[in-house]
Amino acid sequence: MVNGERITELIGKVKDLCRNVALVDDNRLLLEVDTEKIIDLSHKLKDLEFDHVKGVTGVDYPNESIIEVIYYIGSYSRTDYANLIVELKITLPRENPKTPSLIKIWQSCEYPERETFEMFGVMFQGHPKLKLLLLPDEFKGKYPLRKEFKIPEEGIEI
Known about the structure:
With 158 residues, this protein is of the alpha/beta class. The chain has helices at 4-14, 38-47, 110-120; strands spanning 20-25, 28-32, 52-61, 66-74, 85-93, 98-100, 123-125. The chain has 3 helices and 7 strands.
């Protein structure tokens, strides 16, 4: 559990860049940000010694025509933040999901951004190696974690 005063202090330092801030539970802080401010907020978090990305994922909402991208950010540097996970969330249009890559801020997001690109079609602008990571080439342009994706039945062994 993270000290409540530390959370309040952290929120005070980042809330001006956020669309919404919410303490999800004792160890998770949700920061919703507009795409235009994600770089500034990420630099601020890095300055506050949040030094690595634990993961990046997407959530597809076809009925709302959006894809959410969530970065899970942590700190090895600050023991008072050791158990805190910052969820940095942006909402993108489903038809053209683009956002700046955070790889220049956190090298640890290289592979998670590639996976999110591959599975959801999110274009991380400025990512130096945005190409398929896990899937074969025939999946190029097909995004298996979007709701409309159907697994081809022919050739699948169960």
